[in-house]
Amino acid sequence: MTQSIVVSIGQCGNQIASQFWERALREHEEYNASGDFDSALNTFFRLSHKGKKNKKKSPQSRSMRSLLRARAVLIDMEEGVVNEVLRGPLRGLFQDHQTVTSVSGSGNNWAVGYYTYGQSHRESILETVRVAAEQCDCLQSFLFLHSMGGGTGSGLGTCVLEMLHDEYPSVFRFVTAVYPSKDDDVITSPYNSVLAMHQLQLYADCVIPVENQALSDIVEMVDSQTKGKLKKQSAVTGDAKEKSWRRMNNIVANTLLNMTSSSRFEGSLNVDVNEITTNLVPFPQMQFLTASISPLYDIADVHVPPRKLNQMFTDCFDPQYQLVHCVPRKGLFTACALMVRGNVEVSDIRRNIDRIRPKLRFANWNEEGWKVGLCAQPPVGQRHAVLCLSNNTCMKDSCTTLKSRFMQLYRKKAFKHHYTSNGMDESLFDDSISSLSSLIDMYTSLEQENHHTPPLQRPDIL
């Protein structure tokens, strides 16, 4: 069985990681009936030395939790969030040698994170990752969690990504990158985002972009539709009493759990992380995937019928369910993956693909570009769920908006000196915006080439 290491960088990355580990434990406690340290747990957890002597204790007991260690590396140049994790309910999952921290932060500056901290902490970061990697039997992927708008997440995050690209070239690098909203209070976030995006195109195998505003809109939609009648533990946003940023992070955590469910649990159609990259990334530098998840909740009222399976598949292509602001039906699909969890038949999946496919535009060279995963275990609190990952040219709109925000600053050379005075060559600004422009042109070209793509009547499942 393969293993994955979660690398969380910066405040945002470590806050999401905290929610991820909490929900991952909850899932395994729910479904590990045998009480063994099984292959499902082995994907993201290992046993401590004490745990190896007693593998038969149930993970549902507190004693078993104390024997588990997360396959994780926590990095931040402001130690506050990491210290909260190490002092919180999940403190038993982590050891001091799994963290790399400092105290002064990166000052919302990509160059400080990339050049200053990237150089000064390079050896300690690589050593921390090396220890985690050597504790794996078959390391398959690094799951990166970081933001794009700040200094540590964007700068040091992409520096670490480059390090692991060089040191572990055969290990997949799957990135979840949180993009700032238009009204973000970090003035230099467009610079940081574009500079980081250039590095993602060079060194990431696959990227799931997530927008803060889209997550906030999903939380508001869940609240307005449920009005306090949620079934316990059923909402991907978590408890309505939680802070809004925690509920937004819960959506991302659930997305990652659904994406890796086939790697952890049995199912009739298993899909590993490396298969997602292989099937959904048709060209280099076009590795950005749109993501959506359904259902967002179950209603506690027994008189309200559960959300029908057909509706869940429809929701996955609804703009309101996307983790970035986009309209998938208006874009061109180059490939699409449906990761289904729960008691669902393959025939149900095929029927829904046949129903939805005529409403979507696929590239004429990949009209049968569907990848399907089917995991038997549903998310905790739900009957079944669908995660949709697609490579769609609708990402062009978000890229165009980001480019516009970047150019508003760069035309005036505003704040440029903060970057060049920290070891960055000014030409990297030009290289980064050129890289983003090339991606936008690639999306535009694909749409123009496939403008009259006819609908396919019956796609096959890969």
Question: Would you mind describing this structure in some detail?
Answer:
The chain is an alpha/beta fold and 462 residues long. Helix content is 44%, strand content 17%. The chain contains 18 helices and 13 strands. α9 (189-203) packs across α16, α9 (189-203) packs across α18 (427-449) and α10 crosses α11 (244-259). It is globular. The two termini are 23 Å apart. The model is unreliable at 57-62 and 455-462 (pLDDT under 50).
What's the short story on this structure?
With 462 residues, the protein is of the alpha/beta class. It has 18 helices and 13 strands.
Task: Give me the secondary-structure topology.
Elements: E1 3-9, H1 10-31, H2 39-44, E2 45-47, H3 49-52, H4 62-65, E3 68-70, E4 72-76, H5 80-87, E5 99-101, H6 110-120, H7 122-134, E6 139-147, H8 152-167, E7 172-179, H9 189-203, E8 206-211, H10 212-226, H11 244-259, H12 261-264, H13 273-280, E9 290-294, H14 309-315, E10 332-342, H15 346-356, E11 361-362, E12 370-375, E13 384-392, H16 395-410, H17 416-420, H18 427-449
Parallel strand pairs: 1-4, 1-6, 4-5, 6-7, 7-8, 10-11, 10-12
Antiparallel strand pairs: 2-3, 9-13, 10-13
